[in-house]
Write a structure and sequence with these properties.
This protein is mainly beta. It has a single domain, classed as Jelly Rolls (Sandwich), CATH 2.60.120.40. It has strands at about 1-5, 20-25, 30, 35-45, 50-55, 60, 65, 75-80, 90-95, 105, 115-120. Strands 2, 3, 5, 6, 7 and 9 form a six-stranded antiparallel beta sheet that branches. A three-stranded antiparallel beta sheet has the order 8-4-11, with no helix packed on it. Strands 1-10 form a two-stranded antiparallel sheet. Strand 5 (about 50-55) and strand 6 (about 60) form a beta hairpin. The N and C termini lie far apart (about 35 Å).
Length: about 120
Protein backbone atom coordinates (compact mmCIF):
# COMPACT_ATOMS: atom_id res chain seq x y z
CA UNK A 1 0.00 0.00 0.00
CA UNK A 2 1.27 3.45 -0.91
CA UNK A 3 0.27 6.37 1.29
CA UNK A 4 -0.25 9.53 -0.74
CA UNK A 5 0.03 13.09 0.57
CA UNK A 6 -3.14 14.00 2.44
CA UNK A 7 -3.91 10.42 3.48
CA UNK A 8 -3.98 9.06 7.02
CA UNK A 9 -1.74 6.24 8.18
CA UNK A 10 -3.52 2.98 9.15
CA UNK A 11 -2.93 1.16 12.42
CA UNK A 12 -4.84 -2.10 11.74
CA UNK A 13 -4.07 -3.88 15.01
CA UNK A 14 -5.58 -2.23 18.05
CA UNK A 15 -3.93 -3.08 21.35
CA UNK A 16 -4.95 -2.56 24.95
CA UNK A 17 -7.55 0.03 25.90
CA UNK A 18 -8.20 1.11 29.47
CA UNK A 19 -11.74 2.39 28.77
CA UNK A 20 -10.43 5.92 29.19
CA UNK A 21 -12.63 7.48 26.51
CA UNK A 22 -10.12 6.80 23.73
CA UNK A 23 -11.43 4.52 21.01
CA UNK A 24 -10.78 3.43 17.45
CA UNK A 25 -13.24 4.75 14.86
CA UNK A 26 -11.49 3.22 11.84
CA UNK A 27 -7.97 1.88 11.21
CA UNK A 28 -6.90 5.48 10.58
CA UNK A 29 -8.93 7.53 13.08
CA UNK A 30 -9.35 7.60 16.83
CA UNK A 31 -11.99 9.26 19.00
CA UNK A 32 -10.91 11.33 22.01
CA UNK A 33 -14.14 11.43 23.99
CA UNK A 34 -13.12 13.85 26.74
CA UNK A 35 -11.89 17.42 26.62
CA UNK A 36 -8.33 17.52 27.95
CA UNK A 37 -4.64 17.00 27.26
CA UNK A 38 -3.27 13.84 25.67
CA UNK A 39 0.24 12.49 25.22
CA UNK A 40 0.44 11.07 21.68
CA UNK A 41 3.39 9.00 20.48
CA UNK A 42 3.79 7.29 17.10
CA UNK A 43 6.51 5.41 15.27
CA UNK A 44 6.17 4.26 11.67
CA UNK A 45 8.58 2.36 9.42
CA UNK A 46 8.87 3.80 5.91
CA UNK A 47 11.09 3.40 2.85
CA UNK A 48 10.84 6.87 1.32
CA UNK A 49 11.48 10.35 2.76
CA UNK A 50 8.16 11.41 4.26
CA UNK A 51 6.97 13.44 7.14
CA UNK A 52 3.99 12.54 9.29
CA UNK A 53 1.96 14.68 11.65
CA UNK A 54 -1.14 14.58 13.78
CA UNK A 55 -4.50 15.97 12.79
CA UNK A 56 -7.21 16.92 15.21
CA UNK A 57 -10.68 17.16 13.68
CA UNK A 58 -9.08 17.08 10.19
CA UNK A 59 -6.73 20.03 10.90
CA UNK A 60 -2.99 19.36 10.72
CA UNK A 61 -1.20 20.37 13.93
CA UNK A 62 2.01 21.83 12.46
CA UNK A 63 3.95 21.45 15.70
CA UNK A 64 3.46 17.66 15.55
CA UNK A 65 5.05 17.06 12.13
CA UNK A 66 8.05 14.70 12.31
CA UNK A 67 10.25 13.26 9.60
CA UNK A 68 13.73 12.31 8.54
CA UNK A 69 16.04 13.14 5.64
CA UNK A 70 16.20 9.80 3.75
CA UNK A 71 16.48 6.04 3.85
CA UNK A 72 14.40 3.25 5.34
CA UNK A 73 13.91 3.85 9.03
CA UNK A 74 11.43 4.91 11.69
CA UNK A 75 9.66 8.22 11.89
CA UNK A 76 8.99 8.97 15.54
CA UNK A 77 6.70 11.67 16.89
CA UNK A 78 5.81 12.51 20.48
CA UNK A 79 3.79 15.50 21.63
CA UNK A 80 1.03 16.72 23.91
CA UNK A 81 -2.19 17.87 22.29
CA UNK A 82 -5.18 19.53 23.93
CA UNK A 83 -8.76 19.06 22.81
CA UNK A 84 -11.35 21.81 23.23
CA UNK A 85 -14.45 19.79 22.41
CA UNK A 86 -15.76 16.34 23.21
CA UNK A 87 -15.33 13.54 20.66
CA UNK A 88 -12.39 15.04 18.81
CA UNK A 89 -10.97 12.85 16.03
CA UNK A 90 -7.21 12.18 15.89
CA UNK A 91 -5.25 10.83 12.90
CA UNK A 92 -1.61 10.40 11.83
CA UNK A 93 -1.37 12.00 8.38
CA UNK A 94 1.11 12.36 5.56
CA UNK A 95 0.72 16.14 5.07
CA UNK A 96 -0.32 17.37 1.63
CA UNK A 97 0.78 20.94 2.29
CA UNK A 98 3.54 22.17 -0.07
CA UNK A 99 5.82 22.64 2.93
CA UNK A 100 5.66 18.92 3.71
CA UNK A 101 4.77 16.97 0.57
CA UNK A 102 7.26 14.75 -1.18
CA UNK A 103 7.46 11.11 -2.16
CA UNK A 104 4.75 8.58 -1.39
CA UNK A 105 5.11 6.55 1.80
CA UNK A 106 5.01 2.75 1.59
CA UNK A 107 3.36 1.48 4.74
CA UNK A 108 4.90 -1.95 4.30
CA UNK A 109 8.57 -2.62 3.68
CA UNK A 110 9.02 -5.77 1.55
CA UNK A 111 12.71 -6.01 2.47
CA UNK A 112 12.27 -6.46 6.23
CA UNK A 113 9.76 -6.88 9.01
CA UNK A 114 8.13 -3.61 9.92
CA UNK A 115 6.24 -2.28 12.85
CA UNK A 116 4.17 0.81 13.56
CA UNK A 117 2.78 2.00 16.86
CA UNK A 118 0.41 4.67 18.08
CA UNK A 119 0.03 5.37 21.80
CA UNK A 120 -2.56 7.82 23.13
CA UNK A 121 -2.67 8.59 26.87
CA UNK A 122 -5.11 11.04 28.44
CA UNK A 123 -3.23 13.29 30.90
CA UNK A 124 -6.06 15.44 32.24
Amino acid sequence: MILQPGEDFAFPNTGANSNSGISEITETSFNLENIGSYLVMFNVTTIQTPKLGLTLDDELLDYTVAGRPSGASQIVGMTIITTTQENSVLTVRYPDDDAYSGEAVPTENPRQDTTSHLVIVQLS
